[in-house]
Amino acid sequence: MATFSGRCLLLRLLAFRQAQRPLPAVLLQVLRDPRVLKVGVGCVEDSKRLAHDHGLALVSTVDLRSLALRQRCAVLSNGLSLKSLAGDVLGVSLDKTPALRCSDWEAESLSQQQMTYAARDAQVSVALFLHLLGLYSEPWLPDETRSAYSTLAARCQGLVDVAFRGRCETEEGEHRHRSRRPTPESPEAGDQQVPDPRRNKRKPLGVGYSARKSPLYDNCFLHAPDGQPLCTCDKKKAKWYLDKGIGELVSEEPFIVRLLFEPSGRPDSQKDYYLTAKENLCVVCGKADSYIRKNIVPHEYRRHFPTEMKDHNSHDILLLCTGCHAASNVYDGFLKQQLAEEHGAPQGCEEAARTLEDQERRRVRSAARALLSAGDAVPAARRCELLATVAAFFDPGGQEGEGRVVSEVTAQMLETAANLETRICNENYVPHGLKVVRAFAERGLQGLIELERRWRQHFLSSMQPGFLPPLWSVSHNHEKYLRKYGEDLVVSLS
Questions:
Q1: 285, 205 in Cβ contact below 8 A?
Q2: Model's pTM, two decimal places?
Q3: What pairing do the DSSP bridges indicate for beta strands 355-357 and 423-425?
Q4: How far is CA 295 from CA 233, 447, 478, in A?
Q5: How far is CA 66 from the centre of its chain?
Q6: What angle, rounded to 10 degrees, do the helices at 432-441 and 322-342 form?
Q7: 333 pLDDT exceeds 90?
Q8: Nearest Cα to 325, choosing from 206, 201, 189, 159?
Q9: Domains of the chain, each with CATH number or no CATH
């Protein structure tokens, strides 16, 4: 990691994991701070690997390849790798020879050449970022009204936390609109940017949804036999009562069906959330042309709640436009990370994964791939080390010897080793959501109510919705739960 001043930090994550030592708190804070931009080539892929291997959250990244294409750099001639960008934009040559790239990065001590290699990559990435934005030739420090993050992020709008997808999407990326809303940790507007899928024909990174084709709320009403309003529902459900002959039509507009039987329950008050008509629009920005259902309490937590708290929870399903939905998902990631740290329920790291990485098999696979990709370019001594690693895997009891290793490691063995499966089953796996819910459930119903309230308040704080349905509340149903179940509710979690 390097800063714009040139100061560089080389921190070996593997050493911390092998020694079972916690990573420095300040490092974790910088990686997950949305107000600190991280720039490089392949940042989104790096963030996935950090989350998978080390449980680290990396946010607010910018891929230099996207930025170079956005700026339409005329000097780009050799490609979009870090080495090519450094040569074309900065006139700097980076040493990317196989001998150095394939050297032993897991050695107890790295050579000066290795450390320089790592540092140069980080320093050149920062220099490229500033050059591509023209910040070496003009003043860029923020004025009194704007933060440094806002100043920089505004110049790469549409590229923050967006995976690089190639030259063909340059124009699309250039015009991609970015929603800008305050984060829970940083309430200033504009401190976090997330993609607006309405400007992108492809689904943005991590988004697996599409806008609804029909309205969510039909705002039909069901009435009791004496005319008391019971609830709102969709037209399909209201017509079902008519088709079965157990209801009669009272009105077409609004569509009201009076039941011909006594319902199993009636609302406690006529000031009930489920009796209010709801508009088909984004509850955050008010746009009505494209919207998606949003689970305010994410399903990965709600699915582990007791049945009494899972039934009739449409209160926590709201409509958001595609842009606000994507923004909300980013902010949800911040709270998930907080919950992970508070309750020892990491997301995506080895302790929490269904499978674990077998370090020995991974070392063999890396050795085989280095031999296949670099071939004779690997220094002789290092080549023998890699061959010995592969040979020992196929014949653990064999005698070591340089001649034997070279002669017995066949091309077929290298191909097999290069495609090894390195994951093993983790019998102690507990999903992040279940572990968090269990922690809150230790205090019974009150604990689960606190978790539900926390997610609702998080949505209000992070998204600041301006068009919530009437009577929507952070404390919805909580008094009812306590009155009906009290501490007698048996919290049984799956």
A1: no
A2: 0.48
A3: antiparallel
A4: 19, 20, 18
A5: 20
A6: 60
A7: no
A8: 206
A9: 1-205 (3.30.420), 218-277 (no CATH), 291-353+428-494 (no CATH), 356-425 (no CATH)
